[in-house]
Amino acid sequence: MSPQKNKAKPLNRKTILLALSGSIALYKSCDLLRNLKEAGAEVHCVMTAGAQKFISALTFQALSGHPVHTDPFDQNGDWAVLHTTLADKADLILVSPASANLIARMAGGMANDLVTSVVLASRAKVLLVPAMNDHMYTHPITQDNLKRLKQIGYQVVEPIEGELVCGRHSVGHIAENETIIKKVITVLK
C-alpha cells in the first residue's frame, strides 16, 4: 500500500460547501476541489451566475461527484428548501474565489442568489479567498467589506502578489491552493 493511503486524512468526515464566484481565478478551484477531496472532505459546489461564465457547472460536478447548485429555484423533484438544506449540510463554506462583487453582497447581508442565500442561512464557518484586480482589492469599499465580514467571524486567506489578468504584477492574485488547504484544516480543527 502506498504511504498516501495509510496517511490520516485531515478533513475526513468534513463537508465543505465550495462557493464559486466569477473570477478568472476560478480555474484554480478545479485543483482546489481535488485537493479537498484528497484530504478526505466531501465537497458540494454552489456557483454564482458569474462563475458559470468562466467554467461550466458540469466540470465541478464531475470533479466533486455531486450535483452543482446554481439556481435557488431549482425543482429537483424533492421538496426541500435548497438554500437551507445546503446551509445545514456544511461544516465550512469556502468561498474561492471570492470576487469583489460577492464580498460586497455578503457584507451587505444580501440574499439575491443561491450563494448569498446559503451563506446568510448557514451557521457554518466561512472562509473567503479573495481574487480580483489590485485596484478593486485595495479599494476602501472592498477593504471595509472585508473588515465587516471579519468582525462577524468570517476568516480570510489574503490574496498574494502575482500576475493579474490586466497585466500588472500586484496584490489580488488568489492564494496558492496549499495555503488555502492549510487554512481550511486549521479552521476546522
Topology:
Blueprint (H helix, E strand, L loop, with lengths): L2 H4 L8 E6 L6 H12 L3 E6 L1 H6 L2 H8 L17 H8 L2 E7 L1 H8 L6 H8 L3 E6 L3 H5 L1 H12 L3 E2 L3 E4 L5 E5 L3 H12 L1
Parallel strand pairs: 1-2, 1-3, 3-4, 4-5
Antiparallel strand pairs: 6-7
Helix pairs in contact: 2-4, 2-10, 5-7, 6-9
GO biological process, one term: coenzyme A biosynthetic process
Protein name: Flavoprotein domain-containing protein
GO molecular function: FMN binding; phosphopantothenoylcysteine decarboxylase activity
Count of extended strands: 7
CATH superfamily: Flavin prenyltransferase-like
CATH architecture verdict: 3-Layer(aba) Sandwich
Let me know the largest β-sheet.
Answer: 5 strands, parallel
Strand content: 15-25%
Organism: Candidatus Abzuiibacterium crystallinum
GO molecular function, one term: phosphopantothenoylcysteine decarboxylase activity
Domain Flavoprotein: 14-186
GO cellular component, one term: phosphopantothenoylcysteine decarboxylase complex
Structure description:
The longest helix has 12 residues, at 27-38. Helix content is 44%, strand content 19%. It has helices spanning 3-6, 27-38, 49-54, 57-64, 82-89, 100-107, 114-121, 134-138, 140-151, 177-188, and strands at residues 15-20, 42-47, 92-98, 125-130, 155-156, 160-163, 169-173. The chain has 189 residues and is of the alpha/beta class. It has one domain (9-188): Rossmann fold, CATH 3.40.50.1950. The chain is built from ten helices and seven strands. Helix 2 packs across helix 10 (177-188) and helix 5 packs across helix 7. The chain starts with a helix and ends with a helix. Strands 2-1-3-4-5 form a five-stranded parallel beta sheet, sandwiched between helices.
